[in-house]
Design a protein that fits this description.
The chain contains ten helices and twelve strands.
């Protein structure tokens, strides 16, 4: 092998190694952490302010459970908050495009999301419940839905998926519901329940709390079915350090009882939030 050939191969290898090192350096530099946010002095988050009591607009300002939490976090971090109200249709795309640092809006931890984004520890949980009119005795127990017409959200709602799986499990013992009727939204389901069009409705405890706030003596929960859904925020998967910093704050708020107070303020009940077991397989 000539000296020129050896030199060319050495130069090529050096260039390749340099390129790889530069690429790794770029990837590392692109990852966002708390130190970078504090250096910048501003935290930019996206919120879809359209789901009370988590986040909604009142008198031109975003308010709600999530807003109270993020306000406490930015205060502890010593930075300013730039909170953008973003339609849900574009909120994840905007995160991918780095238009904001993370998504500070209530998101159910779903397997398909958990494979693409890094979820924080849960800030809330929602149980799936069967609801009925308080004055009605048609629903004796959630263990027996025989002969009942149940109202539920239009598929592919997670709540509806839980109901269908649960109803299938009751078929073997002849205790399955007579029919499942689908509605576009929870207000329609509760209206149908009030009018006697259905015998019971299935929804989440979070929705039930919101829908019955102004009429607490009309509807009651007959029982729970299936496993709960966990609610959290998300960061980009490469920003694991930022997600970890958020988890430190969220755990501190949970363990000191602050989250419990905020849950009573916004939902009227408290939630036991786990430290593990909330992420599906293959989560980031």
């Amino acid at each position: 092998m000539s000296g020129v050939t050896r030199h060319l191969r050495w130069a090529t290898g050096l260039a390749a190694a340099t390129s790889i090192a530069a690429l790794l350096s770029t990837v590392t530099a692109q990852a966002l952490d708390l130190a970078e946010i504090q250096k910048r002095g501003t935290l930019t988050v996206a919120t879809e302010a359209a789901w009370a009591p988590f986040e909604y607009v009142e008198n031109g300002k975003i308010v709600g459970y999530d807003k109270d939490i993020i306000d406490l976090i930015v205060k502890d971090w010593g930075v300013k908050l730039d909170q953008q109200d973003v339609p849900f249709a574009g909120i994840l795309t905007g995160l991918d495009e780095k238009k904001y640092d993370f998504v500070c809006t209530a998101l159910f931890i779903k397997p398909e999301r958990a494979e693409k984004y890094a979820f924080t520890v849960p800030i809330a949980l929602s149980k799936v419940v069967v609801t009925k009119l308080k004055a009605s005795d048609k629903v004796k127990s959630v263990d027996n839905l025989s002969g009942l017409v149940i109202g539920a959200p239009v598929p592919p709602s997670g709540v509806t998926a839980v109901l269908k799986t649960y109803n299938e499990s009751l078929k073997a013992s002849g205790k399955a519901a007579k029919d499942i009727v689908y509605f576009q939204g929870s207000p329609d389901t509760f209206l149908a329940l009030a009018n006697g069009q259905i015998d019971a409705g299935v929804d989440s405890t979070l929705t039930f709390s919101s829908m019955t706030k102004n009429q607490p003596d009309t509807f009651v929960i007959a029982g729970e079915i299936g496993a709960p859904f966990y609610v959290a925020w998300i960061t980009r998967p490469e920003d694991g350090a930022l997600r970890d910093a958020l988890n430190v704050e969220l755990r501190k708020l949970r363990d000191t009882g602050v989250l419990t107070k905020l849950q009573m303020k916004w939902f009227g009940f408290t939630m036991d939030l786990p430290d593990s077991g909330y992420l599906p397989p293959n989560a980031k």
